[in-house]
User: What shape does this take?
Amino acid sequence: MPRLSIPSVTEFILFSLAAALAIIGFESPPDADRAYQLPHRIEEQLRVMTWNVGRKGTPQGQPLAAADIPHVAETIRSIAPDLLFLQEIEDAAQFDQLLAQLGDPWQGALVSSQGRRIAMLRPRGDWRVPRKWRGGRDGSSPMIYIKEGHIPIAAIGVHADAFSAKRRNTQIGEAVAELLRVPNVKARILVGDLNLDLDLDKRRDLFSNDDHLDVETYNYVCKHLFDAGVGTGSTADPDRRLDYIFVDAHLAVVGAGPIREKRVGDMDHDPVVADLILSDR
Amino acid sequence: MRLELRKLMRSGRPLVAGFSLVVFLLLMLIGFYTYAKTETGGSAEFRYTFENQNYFNGLTFALYTCYFGVSLLLPIFASIEGASQIAGERASGTLSLLLTRPVSRSRLFLTKAMLSIVFLVALVGVFMFVTLVVGLFAVGWGDLDLYPGVMQMTDRPQHLTQGQALVSFLLAWPAIVIALLPSLGLSVLVSTWSRSALNAMGVSVSLYLVFFLISQVHFFRDLRPFLFTSYIVYWRALFQASIDWAAISRDGAKVLAYSALFLGLAHYRFRTREEL
Assistant: This one.
Protein backbone atom coordinates (compact mmCIF):
# COMPACT_ATOMS: atom_id res chain seq x y z
CA MET A 1 0.00 0.00 0.00
CA PRO A 2 1.52 3.33 -1.02
CA ARG A 3 2.39 5.67 1.82
CA LEU A 4 0.16 8.73 1.90
CA SER A 5 2.14 11.89 1.47
CA ILE A 6 1.58 14.66 3.98
CA PRO A 7 0.04 17.11 1.51
CA SER A 8 -2.64 14.64 0.52
CA VAL A 9 -3.44 13.99 4.14
CA THR A 10 -3.69 17.72 4.74
CA GLU A 11 -6.17 18.15 1.94
CA PHE A 12 -8.14 15.13 3.08
CA ILE A 13 -8.37 16.57 6.58
CA LEU A 14 -9.40 20.01 5.33
CA PHE A 15 -12.06 18.68 2.97
CA SER A 16 -13.40 16.27 5.57
CA LEU A 17 -13.54 19.08 8.08
CA ALA A 18 -15.38 21.24 5.56
CA ALA A 19 -17.91 18.49 4.90
CA ALA A 20 -18.48 17.73 8.59
CA LEU A 21 -18.84 21.40 9.50
CA ALA A 22 -21.19 21.99 6.59
CA ILE A 23 -23.42 19.16 7.74
CA ILE A 24 -23.50 20.58 11.26
CA GLY A 25 -24.06 24.11 10.07
CA PHE A 26 -26.66 23.54 7.39
CA GLU A 27 -28.43 20.67 9.11
CA SER A 28 -31.58 22.45 10.07
CA PRO A 29 -33.20 25.47 8.45
CA PRO A 30 -33.53 28.66 10.48
CA ASP A 31 -36.73 29.04 12.41
CA ALA A 32 -37.81 31.98 10.31
CA ASP A 33 -38.44 29.71 7.34
CA ARG A 34 -40.93 27.61 9.22
CA ALA A 35 -44.56 28.67 8.83
CA TYR A 36 -46.59 29.24 11.97
CA GLN A 37 -48.55 26.13 12.84
CA LEU A 38 -51.87 27.05 14.39
CA PRO A 39 -52.08 25.38 17.79
CA HIS A 40 -55.01 23.54 19.19
CA ARG A 41 -57.42 26.15 20.54
CA ILE A 42 -58.07 26.48 24.25
CA GLU A 43 -60.89 28.44 25.79
CA GLU A 44 -58.91 31.30 27.29
CA GLN A 45 -57.06 31.93 24.06
CA LEU A 46 -57.52 35.06 21.99
CA ARG A 47 -56.55 34.70 18.34
CA VAL A 48 -55.78 37.95 16.57
CA MET A 49 -55.16 38.18 12.87
CA THR A 50 -54.07 40.86 10.44
CA TRP A 51 -54.04 40.56 6.70
CA ASN A 52 -53.38 43.00 3.92
CA VAL A 53 -55.58 41.48 1.23
CA GLY A 54 -54.52 43.91 -1.46
CA ARG A 55 -52.65 43.09 -4.63
CA LYS A 56 -49.42 44.20 -6.19
CA GLY A 57 -49.36 45.36 -9.78
CA THR A 58 -48.99 49.12 -9.45
CA PRO A 59 -46.57 51.15 -7.33
CA GLN A 60 -49.44 52.05 -4.99
CA GLY A 61 -50.81 48.50 -4.90
CA GLN A 62 -54.43 47.59 -5.54
CA PRO A 63 -57.26 46.70 -3.17
CA LEU A 64 -58.82 43.28 -2.75
CA ALA A 65 -60.11 41.80 -5.98
CA ALA A 66 -63.78 40.87 -6.04
CA ALA A 67 -62.89 37.42 -7.33
CA ASP A 68 -60.74 36.79 -4.26
CA ILE A 69 -63.46 37.49 -1.69
CA PRO A 70 -64.60 33.85 -1.39
CA HIS A 71 -61.01 32.73 -0.84
CA VAL A 72 -60.45 35.39 1.82
CA ALA A 73 -63.66 34.35 3.57
CA GLU A 74 -62.65 30.69 3.45
CA THR A 75 -59.19 31.50 4.85
CA ILE A 76 -60.71 33.52 7.67
CA ARG A 77 -63.05 30.66 8.54
CA SER A 78 -60.19 28.15 8.51
CA ILE A 79 -58.01 30.26 10.78
CA ALA A 80 -60.98 31.32 12.94
CA PRO A 81 -59.59 34.44 14.60
CA ASP A 82 -61.38 36.14 17.45
CA LEU A 83 -60.39 39.54 16.16
CA LEU A 84 -59.42 40.37 12.62
CA PHE A 85 -58.06 43.43 10.89
CA LEU A 86 -58.01 43.59 7.11
CA GLN A 87 -56.25 46.23 5.06
CA GLU A 88 -56.98 47.17 1.45
CA ILE A 89 -60.70 46.53 1.39
CA GLU A 90 -61.91 48.56 -1.55
CA ASP A 91 -65.18 49.99 -0.29
CA ALA A 92 -68.28 49.40 1.81
CA ALA A 93 -69.89 47.27 -0.88
CA GLN A 94 -66.94 44.90 -0.90
CA PHE A 95 -66.94 44.80 2.88
CA ASP A 96 -70.61 43.84 2.84
CA GLN A 97 -69.89 41.09 0.32
CA LEU A 98 -67.17 39.71 2.57
CA LEU A 99 -69.45 39.77 5.60
CA ALA A 100 -72.10 37.97 3.58
CA GLN A 101 -69.56 35.30 2.58
CA LEU A 102 -68.45 34.88 6.18
CA GLY A 103 -72.00 34.60 7.38
CA ASP A 104 -73.20 34.54 10.94
CA PRO A 105 -72.03 35.39 13.54
CA TRP A 106 -69.37 37.58 11.91
CA GLN A 107 -69.77 41.32 12.38
CA GLY A 108 -67.55 44.26 11.86
CA ALA A 109 -66.90 47.80 10.83
CA LEU A 110 -65.11 49.38 7.93
CA VAL A 111 -63.25 52.54 8.79
CA SER A 112 -61.44 54.95 6.54
CA SER A 113 -58.01 56.01 7.77
CA GLN A 114 -55.64 58.28 5.90
CA GLY A 115 -57.38 57.48 2.65
CA ARG A 116 -57.17 53.74 3.25
CA ARG A 117 -59.84 51.40 4.49
CA ILE A 118 -59.35 49.07 7.41
CA ALA A 119 -61.94 46.45 8.26
CA MET A 120 -62.29 45.21 11.82
CA LEU A 121 -64.19 41.97 12.23
CA ARG A 122 -65.17 39.70 15.08
CA PRO A 123 -67.20 36.47 15.15
CA ARG A 124 -69.44 37.72 17.92
CA GLY A 125 -71.17 40.85 18.99
CA ASP A 126 -69.29 41.99 22.07
CA TRP A 127 -67.41 44.81 20.45
CA ARG A 128 -67.85 48.46 19.72
CA VAL A 129 -66.10 51.14 17.75
CA PRO A 130 -65.75 54.36 19.74
CA ARG A 131 -67.94 57.12 18.43
CA LYS A 132 -65.08 59.22 17.05
CA TRP A 133 -64.14 56.49 14.58
CA ARG A 134 -67.61 55.72 13.33
CA GLY A 135 -68.26 56.91 9.83
CA GLY A 136 -64.57 57.41 9.27
CA ARG A 137 -62.29 59.78 11.03
CA ASP A 138 -59.57 60.39 8.55
CA GLY A 139 -56.16 61.09 9.97
CA SER A 140 -55.95 58.40 12.62
CA SER A 141 -56.04 54.66 13.01
CA PRO A 142 -59.31 52.95 13.86
CA MET A 143 -59.83 51.45 17.29
CA ILE A 144 -62.14 48.74 18.47
CA TYR A 145 -63.09 47.74 21.98
CA ILE A 146 -63.82 44.07 22.57
CA LYS A 147 -64.77 41.99 25.57
CA GLU A 148 -63.01 38.70 25.92
CA GLY A 149 -64.68 36.83 28.73
CA HIS A 150 -65.71 40.10 30.46
CA ILE A 151 -62.19 41.42 30.03
CA PRO A 152 -62.10 44.68 28.10
CA ILE A 153 -59.42 44.95 25.46
CA ALA A 154 -58.61 47.82 23.14
CA ALA A 155 -57.17 47.10 19.72
CA ILE A 156 -56.05 49.60 17.14
CA GLY A 157 -55.51 48.87 13.48
CA VAL A 158 -52.86 50.61 11.41
CA HIS A 159 -52.10 50.68 7.73
CA ALA A 160 -49.06 52.90 7.63
CA ASP A 161 -47.85 54.89 4.70
CA ALA A 162 -45.81 52.83 2.27
CA PHE A 163 -43.61 55.65 0.95
CA SER A 164 -42.78 58.14 3.69
CA ALA A 165 -40.92 57.13 6.82
CA LYS A 166 -41.89 60.43 8.42
CA ARG A 167 -45.59 59.78 7.86
CA ARG A 168 -45.18 56.23 9.15
CA ASN A 169 -43.49 57.54 12.25
CA THR A 170 -46.31 59.99 12.89
CA GLN A 171 -49.12 57.53 12.15
CA ILE A 172 -47.70 54.69 14.18
CA GLY A 173 -46.54 56.94 17.00
CA GLU A 174 -49.98 58.54 17.26
CA ALA A 175 -51.65 55.12 17.17
CA VAL A 176 -49.51 53.95 20.07
CA ALA A 177 -50.18 57.13 22.00
CA GLU A 178 -53.91 56.81 21.35
CA LEU A 179 -53.90 53.17 22.43
CA LEU A 180 -52.05 53.93 25.65
CA ARG A 181 -54.51 56.70 26.52
CA VAL A 182 -57.53 54.41 26.46
CA PRO A 183 -58.93 54.11 30.00
CA ASN A 184 -60.57 51.14 31.64
CA VAL A 185 -59.13 48.36 29.53
CA LYS A 186 -57.21 45.34 30.73
CA ALA A 187 -55.03 44.83 27.65
CA ARG A 188 -53.98 46.62 24.49
CA ILE A 189 -53.20 45.41 20.98
CA LEU A 190 -51.75 47.19 17.97
CA VAL A 191 -52.18 45.41 14.67
CA GLY A 192 -51.63 46.02 11.01
CA ASP A 193 -49.44 46.61 8.01
CA LEU A 194 -46.82 49.01 9.31
CA ASN A 195 -44.82 49.05 6.07
CA LEU A 196 -41.52 48.93 7.89
CA ASP A 197 -39.05 46.11 7.89
CA LEU A 198 -36.22 45.81 10.37
CA ASP A 199 -34.54 42.85 8.83
CA LEU A 200 -31.37 41.67 10.52
CA ASP A 201 -29.46 40.77 7.40
CA LYS A 202 -30.73 42.66 4.42
CA ARG A 203 -30.46 46.27 3.38
CA ARG A 204 -33.43 48.24 4.54
CA ASP A 205 -32.68 51.40 2.61
CA LEU A 206 -33.83 49.75 -0.63
CA PHE A 207 -37.43 50.19 0.46
CA SER A 208 -37.39 53.15 2.77
CA ASN A 209 -36.57 56.82 2.30
CA ASP A 210 -35.31 56.95 5.90
CA ASP A 211 -34.57 53.57 7.36
CA HIS A 212 -33.16 55.04 10.55
CA LEU A 213 -36.48 56.73 11.22
CA ASP A 214 -38.19 53.38 10.66
CA VAL A 215 -35.86 51.90 13.27
CA GLU A 216 -36.85 54.65 15.66
CA THR A 217 -40.53 54.08 14.94
CA TYR A 218 -40.33 50.37 15.56
CA ASN A 219 -38.37 50.77 18.75
CA TYR A 220 -40.75 53.43 19.97
CA VAL A 221 -43.56 50.90 19.70
CA CYS A 222 -41.40 48.28 21.45
CA LYS A 223 -40.92 50.59 24.39
CA HIS A 224 -44.60 50.10 25.20
CA LEU A 225 -45.68 46.89 23.48
CA PHE A 226 -44.25 43.49 22.64
CA ASP A 227 -43.83 42.33 19.05
CA ALA A 228 -45.65 38.98 19.04
CA GLY A 229 -44.29 37.89 15.69
CA VAL A 230 -40.61 38.73 16.16
CA GLY A 231 -38.26 36.21 14.52
CA THR A 232 -41.02 34.51 12.53
CA GLY A 233 -39.90 35.53 9.08
CA SER A 234 -41.17 37.65 6.25
CA THR A 235 -44.82 38.45 5.72
CA ALA A 236 -44.81 40.15 2.34
CA ASP A 237 -43.00 40.31 -0.97
CA PRO A 238 -40.14 40.59 -1.58
CA ASP A 239 -39.07 38.77 1.57
CA ARG A 240 -40.01 41.61 3.97
CA ARG A 241 -41.70 41.63 7.34
CA LEU A 242 -44.30 44.38 7.17
CA ASP A 243 -47.26 43.02 9.13
CA TYR A 244 -47.25 43.07 12.90
CA ILE A 245 -49.21 42.26 16.01
CA PHE A 246 -48.04 44.09 19.12
CA VAL A 247 -49.44 43.33 22.55
CA ASP A 248 -48.95 44.81 25.98
CA ALA A 249 -47.66 43.04 29.07
CA HIS A 250 -51.11 41.76 30.05
CA LEU A 251 -51.20 39.41 27.08
CA ALA A 252 -48.91 36.40 26.88
CA VAL A 253 -48.04 35.15 23.40
CA VAL A 254 -48.68 31.43 22.95
CA GLY A 255 -47.45 31.57 19.38
CA ALA A 256 -47.47 33.86 16.38
CA GLY A 257 -46.33 34.18 12.83
CA PRO A 258 -47.34 34.34 9.20
CA ILE A 259 -49.59 31.64 7.77
CA ARG A 260 -48.07 30.60 4.46
CA GLU A 261 -49.75 29.59 1.23
CA LYS A 262 -52.92 31.56 1.80
CA ARG A 263 -52.27 34.13 -0.87
CA VAL A 264 -54.16 33.98 -4.11
CA GLY A 265 -53.81 35.81 -7.40
CA ASP A 266 -51.58 38.90 -7.07
CA MET A 267 -51.72 39.15 -3.30
CA ASP A 268 -48.36 40.01 -1.78
CA HIS A 269 -48.99 39.64 1.95
CA ASP A 270 -49.46 36.61 4.16
CA PRO A 271 -52.02 36.67 6.96
CA VAL A 272 -50.32 37.02 10.33
CA VAL A 273 -51.80 35.41 13.40
CA ALA A 274 -51.03 35.66 17.11
CA ASP A 275 -52.49 33.37 19.75
CA LEU A 276 -52.67 35.18 23.06
CA ILE A 277 -53.67 34.49 26.61
CA LEU A 278 -54.52 37.12 29.15
CA SER A 279 -51.89 36.97 31.87
CA ASP A 280 -52.07 38.15 35.45
CA ARG A 281 -49.23 40.68 35.03
CA MET B 1 7.77 30.48 11.02
CA ARG B 2 10.35 33.05 12.20
CA LEU B 3 11.25 33.84 8.63
CA GLU B 4 7.60 34.30 7.68
CA LEU B 5 7.06 36.51 10.72
CA ARG B 6 10.03 38.70 9.78
CA LYS B 7 8.71 39.00 6.23
CA LEU B 8 5.30 39.98 7.54
CA MET B 9 6.71 42.69 9.77
CA ARG B 10 8.95 44.04 6.99
CA SER B 11 6.09 44.06 4.47
CA GLY B 12 4.39 46.97 6.22
CA ARG B 13 0.96 45.33 6.00
CA PRO B 14 0.41 45.37 9.79
CA LEU B 15 1.30 49.07 9.80
CA VAL B 16 -1.10 49.86 6.95
CA ALA B 17 -3.88 47.88 8.62
CA GLY B 18 -3.24 49.54 11.96
CA PHE B 19 -3.16 53.04 10.49
CA SER B 20 -6.38 52.46 8.53
CA LEU B 21 -8.14 51.16 11.60
CA VAL B 22 -7.00 54.15 13.67
CA VAL B 23 -8.37 56.55 11.04
CA PHE B 24 -11.60 54.54 10.95
CA LEU B 25 -11.81 54.66 14.75
CA LEU B 26 -11.33 58.42 14.87
CA LEU B 27 -13.97 59.01 12.22
CA MET B 28 -16.39 56.71 14.05
CA LEU B 29 -15.76 58.62 17.27
CA ILE B 30 -16.46 61.96 15.65
CA GLY B 31 -19.58 60.61 13.97
CA PHE B 32 -20.80 58.92 17.13
CA TYR B 33 -20.27 62.01 19.26
CA THR B 34 -22.00 64.39 16.87
CA TYR B 35 -24.86 61.95 16.30
CA ALA B 36 -25.37 61.46 20.04
CA LYS B 37 -25.45 65.21 20.56
CA THR B 38 -28.05 65.62 17.83
CA GLU B 39 -30.26 62.79 19.00
CA THR B 40 -30.34 63.65 22.69
CA GLY B 41 -30.51 67.37 22.89
CA GLY B 42 -29.71 69.03 19.67
CA SER B 43 -32.00 70.47 17.09
CA ALA B 44 -33.70 67.24 16.01
CA GLU B 45 -37.25 67.67 14.85
CA PHE B 46 -39.92 66.13 16.99
CA ARG B 47 -40.57 62.51 16.27
CA TYR B 48 -41.46 59.31 18.07
CA THR B 49 -38.15 57.75 19.08
CA PHE B 50 -36.39 55.58 21.63
CA GLU B 51 -32.89 57.04 21.82
CA ASN B 52 -31.86 58.81 25.00
CA GLN B 53 -28.64 60.00 26.58
CA ASN B 54 -28.00 56.75 28.44
CA TYR B 55 -28.04 54.78 25.20
CA PHE B 56 -24.94 56.51 23.90
CA ASN B 57 -22.00 55.25 25.88
CA GLY B 58 -18.57 53.85 25.21
CA LEU B 59 -19.79 50.28 24.86
CA THR B 60 -22.35 51.29 22.23
CA PHE B 61 -19.58 53.15 20.45
CA ALA B 62 -17.30 50.09 20.63
CA LEU B 63 -20.04 47.84 19.28
CA TYR B 64 -20.88 50.24 16.43
CA THR B 65 -17.22 50.39 15.53
CA CYS B 66 -16.71 46.64 15.73
CA TYR B 67 -19.81 45.91 13.70
CA PHE B 68 -18.85 48.15 10.80
CA GLY B 69 -15.21 47.23 11.08
CA VAL B 70 -15.94 43.52 10.90
CA SER B 71 -18.49 43.82 8.10
CA LEU B 72 -16.31 45.73 5.69
CA LEU B 73 -12.88 46.77 6.89
CA LEU B 74 -11.38 43.71 8.49
CA PRO B 75 -12.37 41.27 5.71
CA ILE B 76 -10.53 43.53 3.29
CA PHE B 77 -7.40 43.34 5.42
CA ALA B 78 -7.86 39.58 5.70
CA SER B 79 -8.15 39.39 1.90
CA ILE B 80 -5.03 41.52 1.43
CA GLU B 81 -3.10 39.35 3.84
CA GLY B 82 -4.16 36.11 2.20
CA ALA B 83 -3.66 37.39 -1.33
CA SER B 84 -0.09 38.47 -0.64
CA GLN B 85 1.01 35.13 0.77
CA ILE B 86 1.65 33.10 -2.36
CA ALA B 87 1.25 35.62 -5.17
CA GLY B 88 3.43 38.11 -3.31
CA GLU B 89 6.26 35.60 -3.00
CA ARG B 90 5.89 34.66 -6.61
CA ALA B 91 5.90 38.25 -7.84
CA SER B 92 9.03 39.06 -5.83
CA GLY B 93 10.75 35.93 -7.10
CA THR B 94 11.22 34.45 -3.65
CA LEU B 95 8.79 31.59 -4.08
CA SER B 96 11.11 29.51 -6.22
CA LEU B 97 13.86 30.14 -3.70
CA LEU B 98 11.64 29.00 -0.85
CA LEU B 99 10.73 25.84 -2.71
CA THR B 100 14.37 24.86 -3.05
CA ARG B 101 14.69 24.64 0.71
CA PRO B 102 14.22 21.29 2.43
CA VAL B 103 10.71 22.22 3.46
CA SER B 104 7.68 20.55 1.95
CA ARG B 105 5.13 22.64 0.10
CA SER B 106 2.54 21.57 2.56
CA ARG B 107 4.57 22.79 5.51
CA LEU B 108 5.28 26.06 3.75
CA PHE B 109 1.59 26.52 2.96
CA LEU B 110 0.46 25.68 6.48
CA THR B 111 3.08 27.97 8.01
CA LYS B 112 1.87 30.85 5.89
CA ALA B 113 -1.76 30.07 6.70
CA MET B 114 -1.06 29.84 10.41
CA LEU B 115 0.85 33.10 10.42
CA SER B 116 -2.01 34.83 8.60
CA ILE B 117 -4.42 33.53 11.21
CA VAL B 118 -2.13 34.73 14.02
CA PHE B 119 -2.01 38.11 12.30
CA LEU B 120 -5.80 38.23 12.24
CA VAL B 121 -6.02 37.24 15.91
CA ALA B 122 -3.64 40.06 16.80
CA LEU B 123 -5.34 42.57 14.50
CA VAL B 124 -8.82 41.86 15.79
CA GLY B 125 -7.65 41.79 19.39
CA VAL B 126 -5.82 45.08 19.18
CA PHE B 127 -8.71 46.66 17.25
CA MET B 128 -11.28 45.63 19.85
CA PHE B 129 -9.05 46.57 22.77
CA VAL B 130 -8.26 50.02 21.39
CA THR B 131 -11.93 50.55 20.52
CA LEU B 132 -13.04 49.69 24.04
CA VAL B 133 -10.35 51.87 25.62
CA VAL B 134 -11.21 54.81 23.36
CA GLY B 135 -14.87 54.27 24.24
CA LEU B 136 -14.03 54.27 27.91
CA PHE B 137 -11.98 57.46 27.96
CA ALA B 138 -13.82 59.40 25.27
CA VAL B 139 -17.41 58.51 26.12
CA GLY B 140 -17.48 56.39 29.25
CA TRP B 141 -18.86 52.88 29.72
CA GLY B 142 -22.18 51.77 31.14
CA ASP B 143 -24.81 49.17 30.47
CA LEU B 144 -25.32 48.14 26.87
CA ASP B 145 -28.77 48.53 25.38
CA LEU B 146 -29.43 47.06 21.97
CA TYR B 147 -32.46 47.78 19.89
CA PRO B 148 -33.85 46.04 16.81
CA GLY B 149 -32.77 47.60 13.58
CA VAL B 150 -29.82 49.49 15.01
CA MET B 151 -26.71 48.02 13.39
CA GLN B 152 -28.84 44.95 12.67
CA MET B 153 -27.47 43.44 15.84
CA THR B 154 -30.66 42.02 17.29
CA ASP B 155 -34.29 41.41 16.44
CA ARG B 156 -35.53 42.24 19.92
CA PRO B 157 -34.48 44.70 22.64
CA GLN B 158 -31.51 43.56 24.74
CA HIS B 159 -30.12 44.95 27.95
CA LEU B 160 -26.67 43.83 29.02
CA THR B 161 -24.96 45.02 32.17
CA GLN B 162 -21.49 46.42 31.74
CA GLY B 163 -19.98 43.16 32.98
CA GLN B 164 -22.07 41.04 30.63
CA ALA B 165 -21.19 43.30 27.72
CA LEU B 166 -17.46 43.06 28.41
CA VAL B 167 -17.70 39.28 28.57
CA SER B 168 -19.52 39.38 25.23
CA PHE B 169 -16.72 41.46 23.73
CA LEU B 170 -14.19 38.94 25.00
CA LEU B 171 -16.15 36.05 23.50
CA ALA B 172 -16.58 38.00 20.28
CA TRP B 173 -12.81 38.21 19.75
CA PRO B 174 -12.27 34.59 18.65
CA ALA B 175 -15.69 34.54 17.00
CA ILE B 176 -14.76 37.51 14.83
CA VAL B 177 -11.46 35.89 13.90
CA ILE B 178 -13.40 32.83 12.76
CA ALA B 179 -15.75 35.08 10.77
CA LEU B 180 -12.75 36.47 8.89
CA LEU B 181 -11.29 33.06 7.99
CA PRO B 182 -13.38 32.54 4.81
CA SER B 183 -12.13 35.86 3.44
CA LEU B 184 -8.61 34.80 4.26
CA GLY B 185 -9.09 31.34 2.78
CA LEU B 186 -10.64 32.68 -0.42
CA SER B 187 -7.85 35.18 -0.89
CA VAL B 188 -5.20 32.50 -0.33
CA LEU B 189 -6.96 30.39 -2.97
CA VAL B 190 -6.94 33.31 -5.39
CA SER B 191 -3.31 33.91 -4.50
CA THR B 192 -2.34 30.40 -5.58
CA TRP B 193 -3.70 31.11 -9.04
CA SER B 194 -2.27 34.57 -9.44
CA ARG B 195 1.16 35.78 -10.50
CA SER B 196 0.71 39.24 -9.05
CA ALA B 197 -0.06 40.14 -5.47
CA LEU B 198 -1.96 43.26 -6.56
CA ASN B 199 -4.16 41.26 -8.90
CA ALA B 200 -4.79 38.69 -6.22
CA MET B 201 -5.75 41.40 -3.74
CA GLY B 202 -8.01 43.09 -6.26
CA VAL B 203 -9.80 39.88 -7.16
CA SER B 204 -10.15 38.79 -3.52
CA VAL B 205 -11.54 42.11 -2.34
CA SER B 206 -13.87 42.32 -5.35
CA LEU B 207 -15.21 38.84 -4.72
CA TYR B 208 -15.82 39.64 -1.09
CA LEU B 209 -17.68 42.86 -1.92
CA VAL B 210 -19.82 41.16 -4.57
CA PHE B 211 -20.81 38.35 -2.20
CA PHE B 212 -21.39 40.84 0.60
CA LEU B 213 -23.72 42.99 -1.49
CA ILE B 214 -25.66 40.04 -2.86
CA SER B 215 -26.19 38.66 0.62
CA GLN B 216 -27.83 41.94 1.60
CA VAL B 217 -30.40 42.17 -1.15
CA HIS B 218 -33.91 40.74 -0.71
CA PHE B 219 -34.16 39.35 -4.20
CA PHE B 220 -31.41 36.81 -3.63
CA ARG B 221 -33.27 35.03 -0.90
CA ASP B 222 -32.46 31.56 -2.25
CA LEU B 223 -28.82 32.37 -2.90
CA ARG B 224 -28.01 34.06 0.38
CA PRO B 225 -27.78 30.95 2.56
CA PHE B 226 -24.92 29.71 0.40
CA LEU B 227 -22.77 32.82 0.61
CA PHE B 228 -20.25 32.95 3.44
CA THR B 229 -20.77 36.70 3.68
CA SER B 230 -24.28 36.00 4.99
CA TYR B 231 -22.70 34.75 8.22
CA ILE B 232 -19.96 37.32 8.67
CA VAL B 233 -21.76 38.87 11.65
CA TYR B 234 -22.91 35.64 13.28
CA TRP B 235 -21.00 36.76 16.40
CA ARG B 236 -23.64 39.39 17.12
CA ALA B 237 -25.63 36.62 18.80
CA LEU B 238 -23.08 36.86 21.64
CA PHE B 239 -24.53 40.26 22.54
CA GLN B 240 -27.77 38.92 23.93
CA ALA B 241 -28.93 38.72 27.52
CA SER B 242 -29.48 35.01 26.90
CA ILE B 243 -27.02 33.64 24.35
CA ASP B 244 -28.28 31.07 21.86
CA TRP B 245 -25.20 28.84 21.74
CA ALA B 246 -26.81 26.41 19.32
CA ALA B 247 -27.35 29.14 16.74
CA ILE B 248 -23.83 30.49 17.19
CA SER B 249 -22.37 27.00 16.86
CA ARG B 250 -24.34 26.37 13.66
CA ASP B 251 -23.30 29.61 12.02
CA GLY B 252 -19.75 29.27 13.27
CA ALA B 253 -19.63 25.78 11.76
CA LYS B 254 -20.79 27.17 8.40
CA VAL B 255 -18.08 29.80 8.46
CA LEU B 256 -15.40 27.25 9.37
CA ALA B 257 -16.68 24.94 6.63
CA TYR B 258 -16.08 27.62 4.01
CA SER B 259 -12.66 28.33 5.49
CA ALA B 260 -11.64 24.67 5.40
CA LEU B 261 -12.94 24.30 1.85
CA PHE B 262 -11.07 27.35 0.54
CA LEU B 263 -7.87 26.39 2.32
CA GLY B 264 -8.15 22.80 1.09
CA LEU B 265 -8.52 23.95 -2.50
CA ALA B 266 -5.71 26.45 -2.05
CA HIS B 267 -3.46 23.76 -0.63
CA TYR B 268 -4.19 21.45 -3.53
CA ARG B 269 -3.46 24.17 -6.06
CA PHE B 270 -0.26 25.20 -4.32
CA ARG B 271 0.91 21.61 -4.03
CA THR B 272 0.33 20.78 -7.65
CA ARG B 273 1.28 23.99 -9.46
CA GLU B 274 4.48 23.96 -11.42
CA GLU B 275 6.84 26.80 -10.65
CA LEU B 276 8.97 27.98 -13.55
Notes: Residues 1-5 of chain A have pLDDT under 50 and may be disordered. Residues 6-25 of chain A form the longest helix (20 residues).
